[in-house]
Amino acid sequence: MIATDKDSFIWWDWVGRHTAQIQSATYEHLRLTLLAVAIGFAVSLVLSAVCLRFRWTFTPIAGFAGLLYTIPSLALFAFLLPITGFNTLTAEIGLVSYTLAIFVRNIVAGVESVSPAVIDAADGMGLTRLRRLATVDVPLAAPAIVAALRIATVTTVGLVTVTGLIGQGGYGSFIESGLSRNFSTEIVVGGGLSIVMAVALDAVLVGVERIATPWTRARPRRGT
Amino acid sequence: MGGSTAIRLRDVTKRFAGSPIDAVHELSLDLPEGSLTALVGPSGCGKTTTLRMINRLEEPTSGTIELFGTDIRQTPRHELRRGIGYVIQQAGLFPHRTIAANIATVPKLLGWDKARIRARVDELVELVGLDASLLQRYPAALSGGQQQRVGVARALAADPPVLLMDEPYSAVDPIVRLRLQDDLIALQRRVRKTIVFVTHDIDEAIKLADRVALLDVGGVLAQFGAPDELLRAPASPFVERFLGKERALRRLALKRVADAPLGALPASSDGLPTVRQSAPLREALDALVAQGVATVIVTDDHDAALGALDVVGVAAALHERGAG
Amino acid sequence: MFRAFVDYVTVASHWSGTSGIAHRTEEHLRLSGAVVLAAAVIALPPAFWLGRARRGGFLAQSVVNVGRAVPSLAILALLFPISLRFGFGLGFWPTFAALVILAIPPMFTNAYTGIRSVDPSVVDASQGMGMRPFEVLTRVEIPSGLTLIMTGVRIATLQVIATATLGAYVGFNGLGSFINEGFRQRDDAKLLTGAVAVALCALVVDLVFGVVARRVTPWRAPEINLRKESES
To answer: What is the DSSP letter of B266?
Structure first.
């Protein structure tokens, strides 16, 4: 009855009647996203440290991450399903896999781009390798790292909609059910909210970046 | 030199949109065919703008520029530029083309056949002192000095009568710069182009140029003349300041030992230093001071003694016009 | 499970017919090719023009941000009811339109950046040597920016192949159909067939792009060079 309606893309009274479902989907979507980004970031930090310490490992590690990234999401989930089943684990393995390529390349490139003169100065002042990494390399690479976080987060929000297709809740479940019933309201709600979430999380991370890297906005003062 | 006028600027003024002052102000210059003119001055004096108006990368706000008697506005921009060599500071080589392809750019635009282009490229490589083995490399593989040589070769490719050079050597290290300057002097002896050379380095201008046009901030011409003329008779306190101290020593560097009046050979020339008459006069003075003697023996290029030179003689060269 | 997969793909009848592996692969790649072509025609000329003019940096950044924030599934899903409404039906057209929209941002932004990042002194030199604006674009700027332009096309193509898989949910009969049917019928063999085929398509296309990119830009050094560890 609803599905045959041709006059409206969105039924606001449907939205009004489903606020509870929308809320729980929002929570689910956010949880899947943050979990994947957090795990992906932690794993990538370790991998990046390995790459930076042992140079030869960069090509195979970045290459493998890139390979995972190239596999279309639905296909990756389809590979995992027969092994791990329809559950959060399957979703998270896939989602984390995609963040690795983004994180490792950006973190390594970020640390790499720190000016050799600064490194020289730090070494010259007698900082140990670990101390230098913590007090010089990583802070100076922060803009690149936050940029990677933004890309990874926004990308993951989009990919989590796909996990809806394998029954993991979130906004994707609205899209899935909307498509199967040809009911546009659900599609608009699911698609629209995931865009809103992506933009909101991106804005939060921009704020984090501004607070964490005050020196990037410094401008030379005009002389007298 | 002393031929006809190759480039003539008449009351050329350029003011950029939104700027309160002129970049170039009522500039008039006559540059003879085959001469090397240096445009010198502090930043903001409009020297680069002046250069870029000659190949119409900038258009004057008022005034005219003639190239061999023809107003440059009568030639379509791209055609005009294909007849003018252009060398810039960062060389501006095409990173995606081999050295050979870079040099061949304008001949290709002009539709030369392959054999002719190839022959010309080989000729140019020799002319600018590049190793032929670099021809198939990409610019990223070359040093700054080598890139500049390619830039000059590329600019000369279609044998244009005029060459514009915009601070071509300011990005290379001092030793390479000196060599490139010497090579340019040698090159100019062979090809006799009308060259306009922009630099902020007065020493470079004095060393290379037949004529120096010194511009002040706002594009006002402060003085235009032979390097020795500027050093001998600065037209204003600004010119004096820009030329710096030790003007007499710099003039000595421009003059030859042969320009100085020679005295008779002393009875015994044992232990006295010798200089060739083709050497810069500054070298004679250096020998006098370094050895702590009153005279040096001047020889011809086969080391046969011609006469003696003392400090008074050296000084006299600065106070005489023309060769002594 | 993998036995079932091998059994599935070794049956000749699973390869032929409109729902066979061959036909669906062909459909998948045909659609992807058409999409990339259409998106290139739409995205590249304005990118070149704006990059030349060195304007529109904010626009380029916004396009890439929006492109990233809009989930591909959401675009695809949203175009489904629109396509039905305007009589384009399901299957090919909503998928095609959604994919073109998705392919434009990476192509536009990379091409824009590629042209814009050409060393200004190189552009200056080419003008100074008497190239016309169109010659500067085709002989200097596009070749110099080719690495980034190619990267954009490559990213877009991979995204198109991936999202064409999702097209199965709006009735597009590509390789995603195996995955979709595999889910519904709980048929692991079908599921894996789709997954392997799609992944292979993506990897092969990626590989081809890598080879082509290296061929057409021989002057490039490797992208990331790790800094030498200085042991002092």
So the answer is: P
